[in-house]
Amino acid sequence: MTAVALAPMSMTPRAGRANRAALAVIGLVLLATGVAGLLAGVGVFGDAVRHHKALGQDTLQWVDGHEWFWLVAAAGSALVALVALRWLFLQTQTNRVGPIDLESDRRRGRTVLAADAVAGAVAVEIDSYRGVASASAHVLGTRSTPTLLTRVTLDDRGDPAAIRTRIQTEAIAHARQALDKPDLPVRLELRLAGHSRRDIR
Amino acid sequence: MRLFDRIAAVLLGFAVLILGILVSAEIVHTVLLNKTGELVLPWQRLTRFLTGHDWSTSAMLTVSVATACVGLVLLLCELKPRRPGLLTLRTDDEHLAAGTTRRSLVNALAARAEEVDGVSGASVKLGRRTATVAVTTVQRDPGDLRQQVIDRLTGWLDALGLVRAPELKVRLSTKEDS
Predict the structure, then answer these.
(1) Which of A27-36, B23-32, B40-49 holds the top average pLDDT?
(2) Four-CA torsion A65, A69, A73, A74, nearest 10 degrees
(3) Rounded to whole angstroms, how far apart are CA atoms B25 and A197?
(4) Which of A1, A6, A49, A168 should one mutate to test binding to chain B, selecting the residue with the greatest count of B CBs within 10 A?
(5) What value does the CA radius of gyration of chain B take, rounded to a whole number of Å?
(6) What DSSP element (H or E) covers A73?
(7) Confidence band (pLDDT; 50, 70, 90) for B83?
(8) Which of A13, A155, A179, B172 could be cross-linked to A133 through a Cys-Cys bond (beta carbons 3.0 to 4.6 Å apart)?
């Protein structure tokens, strides 16, 4: 049975998952820290803690007497910086596919087709249809299991159902033929013609 | 929400990266090289603030509440279930998944309603299962205009081929009523 809702498809799925997890963890840490400070301030942990300095002399003396603490703190800070760098690097990564091998038997040579070229041709073809305002296409996934993602914005000149059928029978069929993958998974996202501002609950 | 995540990730990523580097540099500068003073971070002022304030002072309580609030907002934003972006369209190709956005469906329904003769304006609210269409007309006697709008939108939705088309509710009001 076909699902009622189509799960969002992102060109940066790893970054999306990492962002959500990292921001949730940062939020949890900030919330826990703030609540702990608040509870200490209102005396939940006792009057001794409530009237204790946020950074007491006992803590400063302990830190002064243990130089290894600073080494661990410096290493920890450097590690946090590296994790942040990795997080930033993830933002630039997409799961777009590079050249796709058309020849499965290496003994017969190697033929590759640039996935971007196929996607570009699909977008140009769909863009030329009457009733289409704009179109974009990308080949995502892996070289062995690529998926064609097509986003099409319609204008008010055409019938959405007829345009969808044309995309399926012409542009998508041509892409499958070019890649020699008759069962190439395709994701078609249509933006229907209409007004620009309406209310969604 | 993905855009919010992306912007927050880039801003926080840069902030944490710079802070991590600076904290390491300050520790090396002060503890390992035994140099006095600060490189960039005002850690001496921060130390004076923390050693000068009890947990019960209003300054510390304010900082705690602000930190907890920012954390709570961030956590709620990330834990909130995200509404699937697309409404599925029927296809006869098992390898083709087609869908349309909720926003574009709302815009299209309103535009189709406004194409009916006698309709001067239309707005649509799309819920999980229903689409409520508020139609206005300048006609004093709209007659079967409401039914015409229902027929127009029902036919258009049928042709569109949503796997589950929203149930239509059409409210008609004359211009004087609105």
Answers:
(1) A27-36
(2) 80
(3) 51
(4) A6
(5) 29
(6) helix A67-90
(7) low
(8) A155
pTM above 0.80, yes or no: no
Taking CB atoms and an 8 Å limit, are A74 and B24 in contact across chains? yes
Chain A nearest CA to B172, separation (Å): 17
Cβ count within 10 A of residue B28:
17
Q: Which residues pair with B121 in a beta bridge?
A: B136
Classify residue B80 by burial, with Cβ atoms within 10 Å: 0-12, 13-18, 19+.
exposed
Distance (Å, whole) CA B173 – CA A61: 77
B5-18 in b/e form (b: 16+ CB < 10 A) is beebbeebbeebbe
Which residue, A175, A147, A163, A6, is CA-closest to B89?
Answer: A6
Chain A interface, best mutation among B107, B132, B162, by max A CB count within 10 A: B107
What is d(CA B131, CA B124) in angstroms, rounded to the nearest whole number?
7
Share of chain A above pLDDT 90, in %: 62
What mean pLDDT is predicted for residues B109-119?
92
| Beta pairing, strands B130-137 & B119-126 | antiparallel
Q: Which residues, 6 or more positions from B113, have their beta carbon under 8 angstroms from its beta carbon?
A: B119, B122, B124, B133, B135, B149, B152, B153, B170
ipTM above 0.85, yes or no: no
Residue with tokens 């027929």: B151
Please give the distance of CA B130 from its chain centroid, rounded to a whole number.
20
Tokens of B47: 């130390």
Pick B104's closest partner by Cβ from A38, A77, A191. A191
Contacts of A63 (CB under 8 A, 6+ apart): A69, A70
pLDDT of residue B175: 77
